[in-house]
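Allow me, if you will, to draw on your knowledge of protein folds for a short while. A protein sequence and the structure tokens that stand for its backbone fold form the material at issue. I would ask you to consider whether the tokens describe a fold that such a sequence might reasonably adopt. Thank you for your consideration; the sequence and its tokens are set out here:
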Amino acid sequence: MNGYNVQVSFLQEMKKVLADLQPQERLDGVEAFVRLKQKNKQEAAAKKLLAGTELLVSGGIVWSLATLITLVSMVLALLAIERNTRSRQEST
């Protein structure tokens, strides 16, 4: 049903463009209209791809930061355990 609505919208827009043109200019008008619609569709697809890429990069950065914080926390915890264990061994 969505594809049908897109086609109807496209044809209604084209009808408006053609109504403003003289009969001898209509063929050029249709070609220009179709080229413009294709260009807009390609630009929208490129923007969508760019947004997806940016989202993926942002997700990777967040994941990397979380992993780095976890690793640093683990190292600090291990150093604290080692220090506590050493001081107990030296006191006995």
The chain is about 90% helix and 0% strand. The radius of gyration is 31 Å. The chain has a mean pLDDT of 87.
